[in-house]
């Protein structure tokens, strides 16, 4: 088979049997609850609850697709709720970016909520629990609390402050709120069971003292609720029926229930699903922040980042992400998904929608010696062979054109079907050309290839039924735009970025070749008008989109993904 062919290597033919939507136990639970009217006639309510302490990543896309998508399927509703109970790590910048990302993915929330909106209600409920003898103020230090908590194999022991009177607890908690005590000197704890096999139930902390400014409530509060005390109650306030979260919260479920039951409030239910892990990818906001802070990448939106704004800049599309998330579904056990699955869905989407264009990344000049000097003609090229409605465009053709350096070999290795002396190939939609000779510089590098063309093959059609084995892309030298092209590859060089030797570091696994910058790619002139985010397939090369850095004076394109290159594989195997 020819290394390059007319057909798009991204054949969709074999993919059509793949289900777009896989069985998903969360969908089944919701369907069953609707059928049995578990919540009466109330609509199904879900929420997506990010903490605004970083930018969203592909893992969050999975949660978003489940929270919004599954509610949508049954006519339910979804709130976007910021879980903003950690004033020190949270910022408005993140709040804004998260909203933009959710919308970009194609979802719209019913209500925009903040856990901080519920600080007063949560405080009142804490008072209620204190009055019921179910919460107490503890003066142990953080270290002592840890020691008293016990271990997985040993029960904890009661704090000496556990049996304070309701009056004393009320007094102390009120004074905690009033700011009378320094940070870390006291906490409010739920009085549950220090011997519980579940450590989360050993008198969990409900409130801590923290004199810190909050991005929304300013300095109104100097006590802040812990995640476990805030989350379930926030769900309950919003009448969330299905509170879906990742598996690491499974151990917190008994506590989630305990607060709801002991407060006698709306019975939201928590259901845990598997966290998305992808090969070659690290999905942890904390670590991603570290990459940014240590300048390992250019920012949160570096196109190599797994953040939604990073992959958006790289040219990934919400359609592909939604299709991918539908395909992976949800299960009750954690696993790792091959990054190629995501890339498959992305190529599949772009193959259908990307406008084709011709761009030569590593140019080699081809002079057509029998083509009239000074002449320009326009050839008609299809914008997208996968989509007849995409129409055609006129591309200028002239005597001197650029082809890829890889598309010519003076001495062709076996199975090399592209241009070489005496060989005839097709220039896409233009003409058949036959290489005749090469021009070299003093160092012996080929600077030009001279060839002849067959005027009867105009449009790239065979004049007499004779066949050529290669069709190559090209750009007319006189009309070419020069562009910077950024070729991105995986940010990590190991399938499991956390696989590093003792004493090593996750960042030891960063791929040193994750970015290659080409500064003098040659583009067909129609690309002058390309807008960031607009998808292109540079024929035979890959999928690209203009970077936001791109200007009329300096075009910059990002490679979203390469096409699967059959020649690169042959070359690797045979060492050709
Ligand atoms: P990170 O560890 O990256 O900081 P997080 O879980 O702390 O993530 P949150 O802002 O608390 O991030 O997450 C919001 C929602 O997204 C939660 O319901 C969480 O379970 C879910 N989520 C986060 N990461 C993933 C992932 N990799 N796969 C699926 N869901 C995820
Ligand atoms: Mg979190």
TrEMBL record:
Recorded name of the encoding gene: glnS
Protein name: Glutamine--tRNA ligase
Keyword tags: Aminoacyl-tRNA synthetase, ATP-binding, Cytoplasm, Ligase, Nucleotide-binding, Protein biosynthesis
Region listing for Disordered, in residue ranges: 1-24
Reaction(s) this enzyme catalyzes, per UniProt: tRNA(Gln) + L-glutamine + ATP = L-glutaminyl-tRNA(Gln) + AMP + diphosphate
Occurrences of domain Glutamyl/glutaminyl-tRNA synthetase class Ib anti-codon binding (ranges): 354-454
Enzyme type, top EC level: ligase
CDD domains in the cross-refs: GlnRS_core
GO MF terms, alphabetically ordered: ATP binding; glutamine-tRNA ligase activity
Family: Belongs to the class-I aminoacyl-tRNA synthetase family.
Pfam families on file: tRNA-synt_1c, tRNA-synt_1c_C, tRNA-synt_1c_C2
């Amino acid at each position: 088979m020819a290394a390059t062919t007319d057909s798009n290597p991204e054949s969709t033919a074999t993919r059509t049997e793949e289900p777009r939507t896989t069985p998903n136990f969360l969908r089944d639970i919701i369907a069953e609850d609707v059928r049995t009217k578990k919540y009466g006639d109330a609509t199904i309510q879900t929420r997506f609850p990010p903490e605004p302490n970083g930018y969203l990543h592909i893992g969050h896309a999975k949660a978003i697709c489940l929270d919004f998508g599954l509610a949508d399927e049954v006519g339910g509703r979804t709130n976007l709720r910021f879980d903003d109970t950690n004033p020190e790590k949270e910022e408005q910048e993140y709040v804004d970016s998260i909203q933009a990302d959710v919308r970009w993915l194609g979802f719209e929330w019913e209500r925009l909520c903040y856990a901080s909106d519920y600080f007063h209600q949560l405080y009142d409920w804490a008072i209620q629990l204190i009055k019921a003898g179910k919460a107490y103020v503890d003066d142990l230090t953080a270290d002592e609390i840890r020691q008293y908590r016990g271990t997985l194999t040993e029960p904890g022991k009661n704090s000496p402050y556990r049996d304070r009177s309701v009056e004393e607890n009320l007094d102390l908690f009120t004074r905690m709120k009033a700011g009378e005590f320094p940070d870390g000197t006291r906490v409010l704890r739920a009085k549950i069971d220090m011997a519980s096999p579940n450590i989360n139930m050993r008198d969990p902390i409900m409130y801590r003292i923290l004199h810190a400014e909050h991005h929304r409530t300013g300095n109104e509060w100097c006590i802040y609720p812990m995640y476990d005390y805030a989350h379930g109650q926030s769900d309950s306030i919003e009448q969330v029926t299905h509170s879906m979260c990742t598996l690491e919260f499974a151990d917190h479920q008994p506590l989630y229930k305990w607060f709801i039951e002991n407060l006698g409030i709306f019975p939201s239910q928590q259901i845990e699903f598997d966290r998305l892990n992808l090969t070659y990818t690290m999905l942890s906001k904390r670590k991603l922040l570290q990459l940014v802070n240590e300048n390992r990448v250019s920012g949160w939106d570096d196109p190599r980042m797994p953040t939604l704004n990073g992959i958006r800049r790289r040219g990934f599309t919400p359609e592909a992400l939604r299709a991918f998330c539908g395909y992976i579904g949800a299960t009750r056990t954690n696993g790792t998904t091959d990054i190629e699955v995501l890339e498959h869905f992305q190529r599949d989407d772009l193959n259908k929608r990307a406008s084709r264009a011709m761009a030569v990344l590593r140019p080699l000049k081809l002079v057509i010696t029998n083509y009239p000097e000074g002449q320009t003609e326009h050839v008609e090229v299809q914008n997208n062979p996968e989509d007849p409605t995409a129409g055609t465009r006129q591309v200028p053709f002239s005597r001197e054109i650029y082809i890829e350096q890889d598309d010519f070999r003076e001495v062709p290795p076996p199975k090399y079907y592209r241009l070489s002396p005496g060989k005839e190939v097709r220039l896409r939609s233009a003409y058949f050309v036959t290489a005749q000779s090469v021009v070299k510089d003093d160092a012996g590098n080929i600077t030009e290839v001279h060839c002849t063309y067959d005027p009867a093959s105009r449009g790239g059609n065979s004049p007499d039924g004779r066949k050529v084995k290669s069709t190559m892309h090209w750009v007319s030298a006189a009309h070419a735009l020069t562009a910077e092209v950024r070729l991105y590859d995986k940010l990590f060089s190991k399938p499991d970025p956390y696989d590093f030797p003792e004493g090593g570091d996750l960042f030891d696994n960063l791929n040193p070749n994750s970015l290659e910058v080409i500064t003098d790619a040659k583009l067909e002139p129609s690309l002058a008008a390309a807008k960031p985010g607009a998808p292109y397939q540079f024929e035979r090369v890959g999928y690209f989109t203009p970077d936001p850095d791109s200007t009329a004076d300096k075009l910059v394109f990002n490679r979203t993904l390469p096409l699967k290159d059959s020649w690169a594989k042959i070359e690797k195997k045979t060492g050709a």
